[in-house]
Amino acid sequence: xLNFVVCDDNVVILSKISKLLETIFIKHSFDANIILQETSxxxxxxxxxxxHVDVLLLDINLKGEVSGLNIAEELRKTNKxxxxxxxxxxxxxxxxxxxxKTFDYLPxxxxxxxxxxxxxxxxxDVENESHKKYIKxxxxxxxxxxxxxxxxxxxxxxxxxxxxxxxxxxYSSFSKIQEILPDNFVRCHKSxxxxxxxxxxIEPSSNTISFGNNSQCLIxxxxxNNFMEVLDNYGIL
Length: 237
Hints:
The chain folds into two domains: 130 residues, Response regulator (Rossmann fold), CATH 3.40.50; 100 residues, CATH 2.40.50.1020. The two termini are 42 Å apart. The protein has 237 residues and is of the alpha/beta class. The chain is built from seven helices and 15 strands.
């Protein structure tokens, strides 16, 4: 269940947003609950100290000394993952709001359709995130989504994790990582382990594996038979 907090200094708007949310929860059978409806920013900050919150829907321009931006700043000190949705009639605050890893910004007056679109997208994001798996690279460590990795290359004492966007380097060896890698990571060469889920083409005559961004790696003769057998089991060949 996702715990929602709604904060707006206008009690009429606060009640309207809360009722819209509850209607959306029922319509889509979302497992969610509004655990706090509040007009005071200070009370929201106090509530966050002792309660787990997944989603905050905050008016930016609250009356008093504490704004929605202040609430978001306090939240991010201890909670990096909660979803923040800002509402406001003041467009000049939009750029300031996004610095807090804002999920969405809703201009007032808020309509059912616009709020529904945001909440549906939020639950889709939660669902997709729950299915993602991550790999730790190095002792620091760097966390990379498993599905983003195309292949891992051994280069001397280093391993280079290649994704479509960039490369990640660490000092390690294949022997240390192979046991913890998922089954879709397969040794194809003395210097390469590939994520078979990201292969776009294989050219057996040149022993070349291609990926979506035109990057390539090689198939070594020692590993070719086993590698081809794995691909056949995955239905890639």
